[in-house]
């Protein structure tokens, strides 16, 4: 599952990647509770049986400073040490901590499956403009591109002719003859 020993640098680089995830102002030296929960979930520290998201939140509150809202890398290590015996029952403390480092080392925040395009039921049918009828049909051209304002509102003809007049544009020809 996890390698026997993971270097501290790999664990620290994973910490920094998760610390800046979703926060453009983050420096990477401190991690908030949301990102701590994310690193625990993405690295499979939360397994649903021995370690739950509640356990992770409790450990985060325990290791951070009383008034702080973030943890440093040292406090992150302390949190991993606290969670290790729960996650790897039956192993020695050192062995469990090494397995925890193995889970975290070299991991990146996962973005897969965060937002998916909906393809449920009749979405394709509902968004196919070639099947539109009535007044909605007037809103799109043959290629399915929207016409904008001219497709939604009745545009007035400011040519000076009465609507329905068949000889529009012939005045100049009659006068000049």
From TrEMBL:
TM region(s), chain numbering: none
InterPro entries, alphabetized: EF-hand-dom_pair, TPP/p25
Gene Ontology annotations of biological process type: microtubule bundle formation; microtubule polymerization; positive regulation of protein polymerization
GO molecular function: tubulin binding
Location in the cell: Cytoplasm
Superkingdom in the source lineage: Eukaryota
Listed Basic and acidic residues bias regions: 135-155
Name of one Pfam family that matches: p25-alpha
Keywords: Cytoplasm
Region (Disordered): 128-177
Cellular-component GO terms for this entry: cytoplasm; microtubule
Family recorded in the similarity comment: Belongs to the TPPP family.
Protein name (record): Tubulin polymerization-promoting protein family member 2
